[in-house]
Amino acid sequence: MNVLVINAGSSSLKYQLLNPATGALLAKGLCERIGIDGKFTYKPEGKQAIKEADVAMPTHSEAIQAVLNALVDKDNGVIGSMKEIDAVGHRVVHGGEAFASSVVITDEVMKAIEECNPLAPLHNPANIIGIKACQSLMPGVPMVAVFDTAFHQTMPPVAYTYALPYEYYEKDKVRRYGFHGTSHKYVAGRAAEMLGKDIKDLKLISCPLGNGSSVTAIDGGKSVDTSMGFTPLAGVPMGTRSGDLDAGILEYLMGRYNMDIKEMVSILNKKSGVFGVSGVSSDFRDLENAGAEGNKRADLAVDMFNYGVKKLIGSYAAAMGGVDAIIFTAGVGENSASQRLAITSDLEFMGVKMDAEANKVRGEERVISAADSRVKVLLIPTNEELMIALDTAALVK
Ligand code: ADP
Question: Which domains does the chain have, with CATH numbers?
Answer without folding.
Answer: 3-147 (3.30.420.40), 197-379 (3.30.420.40)
